[in-house]
Amino acid sequence: MSDVTRAEIAVVAVAELFRGDGELVASPMGTVPSLGARLARATFEPDLLLSDGQAYLVDGDGTVEGWQPFRKMLDTIVPHGRRHVVMGANQVDRYGNQNISAIGEHDRPAKQLLGVRGAPGNTVNHRTSYWVPRHGRRVFVESVDVVAGVGYDNAAKAGAAAQRFHDVHRVVTNLGVFDFGGPDHVMRGLSLHPGVTEDEVAEATSFPVDCTGASTSRLPTAEELHLIRDVLDPAGMRDQEVPS
Amino acid sequence: MADKRTTVDDAVAELRDGMTIGIGGWGSRRKPMAAVRAILRSPVKDLTVVSYGGPDVGLLCAAGKVRRVVFGFVTLDSVPFDPHFGRARESGDIEVTEYDEGMFGLALQAAAQRLPFLPTRAGLGSDVPRLSPQLRTVRSPYADGEELLAVPAQPLDVAFVHLNRADARGNAQYLGPDPYFDDLFCLAAATRFVSAERVVPTTELTEGGPVQSLLLNRSAVDGVIEAPRGAHFTTAAPDYGRDEQFQKHYVDSAKDPERWPSFVDRFLSGDEAAYRAEIDRFATEVAA
After folding, report:
1. Model ipTM?
2. Which residues pair with B66 in a beta bridge?
3. Cβ distance of B124 and A159 shorter than 8 Å
C-alpha cells in the first residue's frame, strides 16, 4: 500500500484516539478529526455519538437519533463528561496548554483568533485531544500566549477541582502522534508517521520532545482505505488539510 | 391586553450611551441584525456588548459603538474570524471580558435567577481568571471541599433577540433546530426586545410548531418588532439559511478599509426597507 497518503495515515491516527471510548459524544473539529471519528464509528467504535455540526446527533446512516443544541452541550454534555473533543490549536506547549484565543499580548494582540471558546471547560471536564495539520515551531512553542485549553502544569497549579477530570489525551499532527506521558507530563512521541524521522520532529518543535520510544504509525487496513476513499471522503477534502 | 408592537428604530431609541446590551443568537446564527443595523444608524456609543459573537460584534466595532465586549468567541462560522473585531482588538480600541462559552451561559443564568454567581469548573487553570482578575473562586461547603470558579451574574440593561414568529403580546417562537440562549438573554435584561420574521395571531404559534418551540412567554418581552429577514445575513432557519455570498462580500469589504465605506453607503445607510431592496439587488447581481 505504498500509495497511502499522509492524510489517510492521519485519519487513522485520529480514529485510534477514540478506541475504547464506547458510548460517548465525540466532538471532532476539522476535516481530518471528523473523518477519523466517523471512521472509528464505522469500524471499531460503533457506539460513538456524533453531531451533524449543528443541533442533531446523527447515526452512521444519517438517522437523527438525538437533539443536542448548544445550550445542552454547555449545561450538561461538557460538565457531565461523557465526551471526547478533538480541537485544533494555534499553539501548544510541552505540558499540553493550548491557545486558540489570540497571539501576543491579550490587551492588544498581534493577531486576534477565535477567543477561548469552550476550551477551558472542555479540558477540565473530559478527555481532550488536539489535531495540528502542520506541525511546526510556530505551533509547538515554549509557552502559549493565552491558555485556552488547560495543560498539566496549570491544572496542577489550579488545584484538585481542575485536575479531577482533566485528561489531555493525545496530539495528532501531520508528523506523528504524541501524548503527555513524559516526566512531569511533558509531550513525547508515541508514533511517527511512516517516513518521518526524529530529527524532522525535533526541527519542527520549539521544545525538546523525546521520540526514542516512538513506534511507526500504523497504515490503514484495506477496509479503512475503502471507507476513507469511497464512503467518507470521496471528494478528497482530507488532502486540503494535509497535502501529500 | 398589551400590544407591544414597536419599530426597530423606536426600540433602539431607548438605548443610552454606556449601556450594557445583550445580543442573542450564536456566531452567524439567528442574530437580531435588523436591531444591530438600527444601532449603527443611531448616535448611541460606549456600549458594553454581551454576545456569543458574530457579525453583530464586528459591525458594532466597525461603527465605533463599542467600549467593551463580553464574549467567548467571535466567529462567522463558515468564515472563522470577523475582520472588524480582529482590527478592533489588534488596535487596542476596545476592552474585553473573555469567558469560556459555558461560563458565559452561567453569567446570564445567574442574572436570570437573580443569583450573585454560579459555580463552575470551566475556567479553572486557564488564563480566563488571569485576564479577568475580578473573578473569584468559591469553596464547596460539603465534604468534597472543591474550589470552583464563581461566575458573576451578567445583568443586561437591554436585550435584543430575533426569533421566527411572535405575537403582538410578546410570546415568541423559534422554528429552527436550536433555541441558542435567547430566553436567558431576555431573563437577564431589564428591557427586552424581540424581533421576528413575522408577527402572527397567538393561535398561529401552536399551528406552526410544537408548544416546546415557544421559547419566550410575554412576561419576558417588552417590545415586539416585525422584521422580515431581520437576521440577514445570518441564518434564521427554516425561514432562510445564511446568505453565504453576502457574508463573503461583508468579509471581503471588512478586510479592506478602502472598500468598507462603499459597503456602508450601499447597505447600512438607509432603513431596513432600503436594506432589503439592496440585498435583493445584490442577490441578482451575484446570480448574473
Report:
1. 0.96
2. B47
3. yes
